[in-house]
């Protein structure tokens, strides 16, 4: 497989620096599992890569759980599995993606000014069997990560070819039926890859979820000399009935079961189609890369979180729509230079995207039928970023990484309420720096600091009138500054144990967000987070791997009244680990994994806290010499009665006071279930 842009950024400094006359091209690198040793190549302690073997060895419930290979990262769900997941990392409740930048082969996945939430990141279109590797970087220290990257970012990379055609058939509890297949063959001067997935699933819910997912991938790639290129087409459609969070009092009173719904008509439909092209040329002392992409995204959601609080007769269901075209691309060059008695690897580039949002709306509905409009807008948003970074090897034991990024944005809103239409523009510069010390060949110490940002919803930057109450409201800042610093240690021992530990702090000037559920802005105070993350990976045998990650975080609003500074939904501790047995060829294989996140605050004064959650998942199977693979997965092995996510707010059930009742609203984790699959490799 070819190296991705982020892989190149990680490996090229060492590779280029090692070159001597006569010049030679940098060879490709194959990422199989977790990359064992990043000493000498990593720019910060909180970055890494996870390969295809380790990704596929994890028993997962949903596609987005592939991101849980990032230390301290949690992906949950509060609604139907066709909707974007709820994400958490480093003391952030990221909602559906704000402050964590996610990409796929050069295409951004976060959606700004989205109908359901700023930075909305839907990963349900992924086919896990076709994911080659994942690159991640936490913190604000990487110049190639711009908007939404305050907590960090990750990039998925799909395979360009498979060694042999494959097909997998999976069935299991709650109506699960899934088929995934793929293969590649020569076409012209290159290789054509075709793959896809069909999935149906009802879940344990009283009203079946009725997931109907269809995903397809077509990729043509070729190489000539030191240049390679790829054209990638993707298609995805999904429809489902939602299993939204429910109040604890409704279960305690017997109104609904733990797996019931208050409004059984909630649900949604989603579609995503994309076409992208990549080009890369690896020279003797330079690498040039280019990406172009076009994306069409379509989402319609029907939700009801407060039930009868606003409308006692018809209920509070609402619909959110988002239909857009995203056009963009990037150019980058990595170059080796020699000056001031040191070797420098300089990378500079430009990134651009334009979001043409033809329909972003919020509507009142009853049983999925529109009965009123809160607001209906058209948005054009452009963002252009330029960056430059120099990694300098001053001695064999010391190197520095200095960089700066500049971003400029324009926001144009055409609203059904003329007072909320308008144009805004903003720009921000983000310097970053890391110092790396190597006391010996197996150890590195890192000190890093930098500035980052996230953009706010375009509608919030031009709003003057609340569309629901018609009261005057203030506009929000288009771009919100973040500041971060980190000290860390990376150790790669001779016994095969790879460990990192990082102490980090991160501050946001404001957590101002546009609230899609209300169609208005909800400003909050500035915030500060800090914590420690410990990540370990040990391979005592080629077929045996053990890993364990522990993350602690402290999140507080700044300037808040004493005793009211907690940030609701901010996870305070996350523990994840597992053991995997995976022979390189045939024979028995298996994995056992645990994921735990502790209690966390649901309100600012910490008077109400969410319950902790611990899940245990397992895989076991056998691969025959003939290429047949048999596998059984058991999810929630201990059948724990825990929750995916919890909120605290007021809602109203039939017969309750008009002002509603404050209560914990939760979405339960699914009970124990068994899934069996049969796969073939021809």
From TrEMBL:
GO cellular component: cell outer membrane
The TonB-dependent receptor plug domain, residue ranges: 43-152
Main location, first listed in the record: membrane
The entry's keywords: Cell outer membrane, Ion transport, Iron, Iron transport, Membrane, Receptor, Signal, TonB box, Transmembrane, Transmembrane beta strand, Transport
Keyword Membrane among UniProt keywords: yes
Xref: Pfam families: Plug (PF07715), TonB_dep_Rec_b-barrel (PF00593)
Recorded topology in the membrane: Multi-pass membrane protein
InterPro entries referenced in this protein's UniProt entry, alphabetically: Beta-barrel_TonB, Beta-barrel_TonB_sf, Plug_dom, Plug_dom_sf, TonB-dep_rcpt-like
PANTHER family the UniProt entry points to: FERRICHROME IRON RECEPTOR-RELATED, TONB-DEPENDENT OUTER MEMBRANE RECEPTOR
Family statement drawn from the similarity comment of this UniProt entry: Belongs to the TonB-dependent receptor family.
Protein name: TonB-dependent receptor
Species this chain originates from: Gemmatirosa kalamazoonensis
Phylogenetic lineage: Bacteria, Pseudomonadati, Gemmatimonadota, Gemmatimonadia, Gemmatimonadales
């Amino acid at each position: 497989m070819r190296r991705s842009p982020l892989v190149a950024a990680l490996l090229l400094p060492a590779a280029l620096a090692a070159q001597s006359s006569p010049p030679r091209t940098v060879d490709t690198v194959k990422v199989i599992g977790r990359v064992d040793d990043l000493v000498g190549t990593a720019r910060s302690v909180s970055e890494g890569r996870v390969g295809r073997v380790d990704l596929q060895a994890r028993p997962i419930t949903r596609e987005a759980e592939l991101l849980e290979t990032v230390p301290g990262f949690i992906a949950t769900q509060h609604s139907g599995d066709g909707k974007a997941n709820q994400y958490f990392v480093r003391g952030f409740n990221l909602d559906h993606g704000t402050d964590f930048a996610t990409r796929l082969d050069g295409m951004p996945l976060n959606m700004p000014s989205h109908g359901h939430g700023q930075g909305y990141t839907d990963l349900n279109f992924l086919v896990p069997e076709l994911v080659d590797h994942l690159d991640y970087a936490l913190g604000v220290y990487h110049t190639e990560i711009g908007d939404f990257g305050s907590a960090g970012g990750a990039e998925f990379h799909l395979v360009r070819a498979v060694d042999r055609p494959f097909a997998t058939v999976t069935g299991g509890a709650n109506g699960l039926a899934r088929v995934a297949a793929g293969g590649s063959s020569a076409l012209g001067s290159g290789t054509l890859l075709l793959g896809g997935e069909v999935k149906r699933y009802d879940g344990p819910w009283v009203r079946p979820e009725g997931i109907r997912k269809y995903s397809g991938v077509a990729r043509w790639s070729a190489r000539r000399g030191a240049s390679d290129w790829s054209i990638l087409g993707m298609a995805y459609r999904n429809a489902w009935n939602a299993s939204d969070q429910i109040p604890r009092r409704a279960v305690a009173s017997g109104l609904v079961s733990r797996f019931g719904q208050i409004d059984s008509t909630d649900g949604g439909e989603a579609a995503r189609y994309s076409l992208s092209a990549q080009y890369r040329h690896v020279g003797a002392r330079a690498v040039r890369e280019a990406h172009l992409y076009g994306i069409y995204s379509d989402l319609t959601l029907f939700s009801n979180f407060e039930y009868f609080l606003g409308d006692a007769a018809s209920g509070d269901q609402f619909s959110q729509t988002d239909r857009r075209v995203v056009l963009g691309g990037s150019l980058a060059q990595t170059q080796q230079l020699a000056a001031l008695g040191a070797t420098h690897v300089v990378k500079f580039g430009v990134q651009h995207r334009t979001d043409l949002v033809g329909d972003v709306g919020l509507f009142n509905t009853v049983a999925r039928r529109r009965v009123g409009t809160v607001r209906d807008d058209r948005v054009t948003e452009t963002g252009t970023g330029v960056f430059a970074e120099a990694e300098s090897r001053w001695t064999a034991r010391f190197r520095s990484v200095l960089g700066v990024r500049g971003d400029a944005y324009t926001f144009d809103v055409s609203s059904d309420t003329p007072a909320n239409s308008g144009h805004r523009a903003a720009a921000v510069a983000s310097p970053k720096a890391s110092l790396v010390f190597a006391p010996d060949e197996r150890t590195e110490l890192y000190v890093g600091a930098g500035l980052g940002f996230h953009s706010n919803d375009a509608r919030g930057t031009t709003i003057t009138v609340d569309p629901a109450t018609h009261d005057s409201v203030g506009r929000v800042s288009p771009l919100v500054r973040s500041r971060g610093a980190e000290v860390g240690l990376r150790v790669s021992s001779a016994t095969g144990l790879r460990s990192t530990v990082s102490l980090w702090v991160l501050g946001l000037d404001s957590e101002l967000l546009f609230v899609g559920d209300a169609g208005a802005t909800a400003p909050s105070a500035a915030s500060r987070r800090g914590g420690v993350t410990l990540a370990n990976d040990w391979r005592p045998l080629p077929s045996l791997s053990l890993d364990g990650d522990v993350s602690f975080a402290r999140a507080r609003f700044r300037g808040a009244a004493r005793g009211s500074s907690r940030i609701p939904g901010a996870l305070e501790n996350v523990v994840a680990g597992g053991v995997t047995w995976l022979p390189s060829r045939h024979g028995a294989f298996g994995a056992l994994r645990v994921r735990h996140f502790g209690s966390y605050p649901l309100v600012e004064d910490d008077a109400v806290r969410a319950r902790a959650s611990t899940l245990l998942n397992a895989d076991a199977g056998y691969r025959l010499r003939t290429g047949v693979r048999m596998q059984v997965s058991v999810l929630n092995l201990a059948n724990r009665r825990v929750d995916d996510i919890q909120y605290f707010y007021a809602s109203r059930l039939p017969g309750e006071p008009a002002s509603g009742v404050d209560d914990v609203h939760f979405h339960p984790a699914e009970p124990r279930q068994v899934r069996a699959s049969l796969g073939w490799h021809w």
